[in-house]
Amino acid sequence: MADNQNKPLEGKALNEILKVRREKLAALQEMGRDPFVIVKADVTEHSMQIKDNYGDFEGKEVAIGGRLVSKRVMGKASFCDVQDRDGRIQCYVTRDNLGEEEYKLFKKLDIGDIVSVKGTVFKTKMEEISVSAAEVTLLSKSLQVLPEKFHGLKDPDLRYRQRYVDLIVNPETKRNFIIRSAVIRAVRSYLDNLDFLEVETPILQTIPGGAAARPFITHHNTLDIDMYMRIALELPLKRLIVGGLERVYELGRVFRNEGMDANHNPEFTLLELYQAYTDYYGMMDITEGIIKEVARKVAGTDKITYQGVELDFSKPFERITMVDAVKKYAGVDFDAIHSLDEARAAAKEHDVEFEPIHEKGDILNLFFEKYVEDKLIQPTFLMDHPVEISPLTKRKPDKPEYTERFELFICGHEYANAYSELNDPIDQRKRFERQEQLRANGDEEANMIDEDFMLALEYGMAPTGGMGMGIDRLVMLFTDAPTIRDILLFPTMKPIGGNGEEKEE
Questions:
Q1: Domain coverage including residue 120
Q2: Which of 242, 310, 453, 504 pairs with 178 at a CA distance of 20 to 30 A?
Q3: For residue 5, what pLDDT is reported?
Q4: What is the C-alpha separation between 443 and 431, in angstroms, rounded?
Q5: Structural domain includes residue 225
Q6: Gap between the Cα atoms of 36 and 323, Å rounded
Q7: Crossing angle (nearest 10°) for helices 471-479 and 171-193
Q8: Tell me, what CATH number does 426's domain have?
């Protein structure tokens, strides 16, 4: 809960203010001035449009609309600030311009009320661009009290639960979501220019596939079957490659019933794309191109700072195999390890915990997670993952125990995952069967066998490159946000009861 400093009005004082606001509304309704019967307002300009182009607007009549965020009443003349989509603009309101009755009504307006103001643009003696009001209309009565202006809405829990208030009082929040929209536009534009086709695939699936994740389960009443919220976009998009669409992508919500932290929310936005007749090197070029395009279009620079770390996107991204990365940071060369017993011995020597079902490749990945992951700060493509942890990936022809796969790491976090896609239906079935064995041993994140996808592969899929990228993490990067909740308009939250406390299970 917020501390007292962030909630200066409580108890009887707050209740009295809320009561007065409702009384004001009732009085207006009795006068026939109910603001809630107004269905539209003629808003012709926004605040920054006027401020940025003052020379074009000086002396001209405008109509603005927004929320009253400050008011300074001084007898026959008053000033107020109206906040709209773009920012704030000052309005000069006088009894002479409005008339005595309308001016009295203006003085009774509350901070938070939504108004329209019609008037003439001018500059005050203090050189502030303002609107001299000829008409002020109350469009919506605010019955609640905005947070006190000097402290704002700072409590993170309240900010996420009451995003509508957060957007009103914290300009940086609005900035984050404007940037989010710009990031998504830049990604779409980049892929559209490469002749990719944007498509939509089902959110409800009979078999969740394409990732190692625990799904949400629901039930379809008419069909009387359990269904799953999708955990990835991969398998439907690959079916489209089989069908000959060649270049497809989807930007969509996926759902994973797993832990929540600064980088994870149960539902998030994922980009997946697939291109026929290319491989994971082609996907590296596209992935690097997307990051650089977003930097250029959104940040306006190829060097940004994230959480105090300067990132340089101007250079080619580093490329390193998982084996070489583990050798570099852990001092263990898995090319010199030829058996599972040797891998287990190396793990014990280096305090790497493993399970009995883990194979050599699984243990290599455990080494990476413990010794390497947090060292990859500048953009780095980690390549050639072991086949045991890559059930949908084509093997490397010269080293079949490894796959043509990469992950993009920045600041120690994964931003993208890509493959040369496995298109051998016989090998794919064997990989799925191992995943089924893992599920039987209690791994709820292991893949199920999707027989319809297997049938599609048997019709034949061209050599294909595919890539998935977490859009939310990308937005975090370009907004310098420390947590995913800062860049999700409505992050998943535990419900609260009537007393303001979180509901018990």
A1: 4-149
A2: 310
A3: 39
A4: 15
A5: yes
A6: 66
A7: 130
A8: 3.30.930.10
